Amino acid sequence: MTVQSLTVRSTTLDVMWADGAISQFPTIWLRDNCPSGLHPETQERMLDLLALEDEPELISAEINENIVDLKYDDGHISYMPVALLSTHRPGQREFDAGDVPANLWRGDLGKVGVPRHTAAPVLSEDSALNAWMMDTASLGLAIVENLDDRVEAGVEIAQRIGFLRQTNFGTTFEVINKPDPNNLAYTSVALPLHTDLPNQEVPPGYQFLHCLANEATGGGSLFADGFAMAEDLRLEDPEAFRLLCEVSIPFRFHDGDADIRVHRPVITLGAGGEVIEIRYNAHLAGIFDMPTEIMPAYYRAYRAYMAKTRDAKYRVELKLKAGEMVVFDNRRVLHGRDSFDPSTGFRHLHGCYVDRGEFFSRLRLLASNG
Amino acid sequence: MTVQSLTVRSTTLDVMWADGAISQFPTIWLRDNCPSGLHPETQERMLDLLALEDEPELISAEINENIVDLKYDDGHISYMPVALLSTHRPGQREFDAGDVPANLWRGDLGKVGVPRHTAAPVLSEDSALNAWMMDTASLGLAIVENLDDRVEAGVEIAQRIGFLRQTNFGTTFEVINKPDPNNLAYTSVALPLHTDLPNQEVPPGYQFLHCLANEATGGGSLFADGFAMAEDLRLEDPEAFRLLCEVSIPFRFHDGDADIRVHRPVITLGAGGEVIEIRYNAHLAGIFDMPTEIMPAYYRAYRAYMAKTRDAKYRVELKLKAGEMVVFDNRRVLHGRDSFDPSTGFRHLHGCYVDRGEFFSRLRLLASNG
């Protein structure tokens, strides 16, 4: 965007852009962001903001090609690239390739089909990696297929994004029925829809479940978009939605090696009021401890959300085959499974997590190199 | 606490305790928490809350020794331990050994002395581990001394608490001056007080800096309690405090392998209005992007907090010796260092992080086994 005119005012520089829009840059901002204040090697800020006057005064602003020359009353001169001003207009967030809008879905995604991507190109080509990650970011759910028949094959794909998130269950985990289980996932019973580890300050971000065998009768996988269920509840029952956003409930996991607890709401909203996180796990929810006065209303709200997790309208069902890996945003998409009969065959999923931070970092790097 | 009387009401059971206090337990809560609803092996909840009526009805409540027998109109009978009712009164949070109150400090801590603990007992005795962790939790700062002269000695102590937090800098890091640095920590320049990695969704919790050598001239360490500075600002300039709590600013770290960004406020408050987190790192703060209208006031607020980080009143200075490790809550205590002259001697710190989740889990386990 080119500059149409510059006006020096007492506390701002007003820039009129080619399209007629006006941005007002406070003088202290201009001085704070003078390009001379960055470390030449690390690009980190070196300027001592406290060394500036409270109200630095701008004397003149002149445009020379793509640079705005700024002169201050203390003799300082800045050469501000127009591009810097244009991309950093006050009140406007800089473009962020990691800011992928959520595309909400309901059971109809099952008919369209969960997006599928092939393992080999995801492993070797950045464009395929990016395409798969964009589907996963947007829908919160995608499948990678044709994985090698090795336990590490799913982890290798996850590590294309970044390092694994370690939890008290390790960096990887085996979903098989095992003796002396410390978690229902390690039994053969049905698992109702849930998000993993809501008892953590930050529950794991993206979850990877690589199917190595699924020969038992039963054991199908269920998914539902927790954001879509929350948005529907917001429309249908605003008071229930409000309670699920505002009232924290206890979540806890406890065994011999860990006792990890938080109080958090089921629904977390972002700065713009949009749903950014769901914590829902009926068997890790602790004993409700809100005041008596709001408890019955809270139970109604909680059960209203719970009812949606049982509603076929929101569900996608699929039975993973050996060589397939389902990947989903564990802070958005609820997952579950049907019970299975371990006597009819082997069922083995190999799982791991990569957090949102690493995921969006990779998307940004792919966008800037792409 | 023993029960004085029980009163069955239309939607609650009212319990009068021995001290005369009354708790009202909503009937749905009683039914939800019937002890018969837990998985016998995992202790996770098995009850299907949706299978209950909206308003279950209690017919009778009788106390038999330490058990309250509850009869419902649908024939269900619960045997509720009095202890369960007593520890889970509505509106009251269950005791949590991980809930350690912050003991705020200012520069005077330097005179009293930062608490010191000896490595060997911390490694071998749970009571010494607990004592050190309680100091670290309460003050956000403690020193472990007499560590072995091995690079891994500090990590071994950190791992007494739990696994290490991995970041884009690895699971451990070397603070030495090195060529082609991607971060100011890897130079010999002074580092003003800051918290590490405020650009992460959750910055690392507890930081461990094990000093292996500190022979260079300069290179002293600085610490300040970010909570204390925030609380003082709240009293002196409530408007500045409010802006630092409510306005998010961009934080970003970017190199060839990572581009990790968030928008967050400098000060984060907990549910009770108490300060629970500080993000302050002048060289990782991005270009401010709030609207023009609030920007000058925000700069004043930010500079007011910044001025406190320069004020000797808040500072503790110490020069780590080989064999000492400083441990601090990176989401509370700001750290920095004086510049040093690498030609006068070697300076080498070996660092790692353990997150709050693992830290408080360990405190809870120590309390329940102690």
TrEMBL record, chains A, B:
Record bears the keyword Membrane: no
Superkingdom per UniProt: Bacteria
TM annotation in the entry: none
GO biological process: carnitine biosynthetic process
Pfam families: GBBH-like_N, TauD
Residue ranges constituting the TauD/TfdA-like domain according to the UniProt record: 124-353
Keyword Metal-binding: yes
A GO term for molecular function: 2-oxoglutarate-dependent dioxygenase activity
Cofactor list: Fe(2+); L-ascorbate
InterPro entries, sorted: AlphaKG_dependent_hydroxylases (IPR050411), GBBH-like_N (IPR010376), GBBH-like_N_sf (IPR038492), TauD-like_sf (IPR042098), TauD/TfdA-like (IPR003819)
Domain (Gamma-butyrobetaine hydroxylase-like N-terminal): residue spans on this chain: 8-78
Keywords: Dioxygenase, Iron, Metal-binding, Oxidoreductase
Similarity annotation: Belongs to the gamma-BBH/TMLD family.
UniProt protein name: Gamma-butyrobetaine dioxygenase
Species: Pontivivens marinum
